[in-house]
Amino acid sequence: MVSQKASRPARQDDVVALTSETWHLFEELFGPGGLQGGCWCAFFRMAARDFDQSTPAEHKQYVRTTVCQGHPFGLLAVVDGRAQGWIAVGPRLANVRLAKSTVARVPANDDLHTIWSVTCFYIRRGARGSGLTDTLLGSAVRYAKEHGAGIIEGYPVVKRGAHLSASDLYHGELRTFLNAGFQCVEKRGVRRALVRLVLTKD
């Protein structure tokens, strides 16, 4: 029987990039269904028509091909040999769906080539509440900076005290980003925001 509880919180050094070598951890974490109706975290990476006309198996293959080609896709929090959490982070321009997003719209004249995006979090049920989201976001900031990003941004949910399910919170919560040093650029509607962190060079 699979344990439903991570035995200890993840540290920063437990966070690894999704690569062909760590694919099996991602695959096991997402399970046979690929989460969210078979998304496999391909939603923001694929054009709307391509995503809608593809099967969950094709979403999975798209992600695997992208990862095996060496493109940054996200990070896994690994505790005692099992992935317990996931954050999707990569260049904004690789997330083609953001180009038409009202939540992710950017000021005119922004250089999108320097921006990385955090688009998704997933924490295994038994590991929720253990700080993995904070650990993953902190690691994503460092990962983006190491890969030359000038800005990292997110599109979190403004919780406002309401009870929301995990499926409603996959963008992350606003307070999580603010606690990590991000600044709120603008509220986008009642429940969403655009946040950014400028990555200064050491």
Q: Would you write up a description of this structure?
A:
By secondary structure, the protein is α+β, with helices and mostly antiparallel strands. The protein has a single domain (13-198), classed as 3-Layer(aba) Sandwich (Aminopeptidase), CATH 3.40.630.30. The chain is 23% helix and 22% strand. The chain is built from five helices and seven strands; from the N terminus they run βαααβββαβαββ. It has helices at 23-30, 48-52, 56-68, 132-146, 174-179; strands at 15-17, 74-79, 82-91, 115-123, 151-154, 183-188, 192-198. A seven-stranded mixed sheet has the order 1-2-3-4-5-7-6, sandwiched between helices.
What keyword list fits this structure?
Aminopeptidase; seven-stranded mixed β-sheet; globular; 202 residues; alpha+beta; 23% helix; 7 strands; 5 helices; single chain
Largest sheet: 7 strands, mixed
For the record, the count of structural domains works out to: 1
H/E order of the elements?
A: EHHHEEEHEHEE
What is the mean predicted local confidence, pLDDT? 89
Tell me which oligomeric state these chains represent.
single chain
- State the end-to-end CA separation: 47 Å
Q: Could you name the CATH class?
A: Alpha Beta
**Helicity level, as a percent range?**
10-25%
Rg, Å, rounded: 16 Å
Global geometry: globular
CATH topology: Aminopeptidase
Secondary-structure content class? alpha+beta
pLDDT below 50 for ≥5 consecutive residues: which ranges? Answer: 1-8
CATH architecture grouping: 3-Layer(aba) Sandwich
Question: Topology of this protein?
Answer:
Elements: E1 15-17, H1 23-30, H2 48-52, H3 56-68, E2 74-79, E3 82-91, E4 115-123, H4 132-146, E5 151-154, H5 174-179, E6 183-188, E7 192-198
Parallel strand pairs: 4-5
Antiparallel strand pairs: 1-2, 2-3, 3-4, 5-7, 6-7
